[in-house]
Amino acid sequence: MSNTACATASTDRSDPSQRSQTGRTHTARTLGEDIDALVRAGPRLLSIYLTARLEPALRECVMVAVSRANACARCTRVHEAWALRAGVPTEELEQLGAGELAAIRGEHRPAVVYAAALAEARFKVISPDAQAVADEHLEPGRQRDIEAIARLISFANLSVNSAHAAASRVRARLTVGFR
Question: Residue 177: pLDDT band by 50, 70, 90 thresholds?
């Protein structure tokens, strides 16, 4: 698949600030599913971090892409700062934020496309184009590593967004009560 096809394989890459104020959140059902999937990914995650199987720059690019897909502005900011510290060029982060995947370093592009597609599909079936990018450029073990990292940050994103949404509802009720 060409770089252009790889750049366009991801689904909606819109600015998370244009989505709901709090982004994607957990439901009771998805929270249970996410915890189960994260527990199953635990040994792989431990191995990824202990052996540095994914270099920090790639890992942080994946985390930024997934945080943006889940509209978690807080996690996006944190992981952008960590990505800069890991050596990701500012221009690459700007392009990632704008959804311009063609500007992302070649070796990072397939992982970012794949991770964002997984998050956008809530780890269900992803677009055939995004799957083709993953299959062509990422070995099966690498795909599983990218999915594990994407699940980890997605769980964190949805947890942060859920806490923010709950706090906003409480604040709104308190404000109404004091009128």
Answer: low
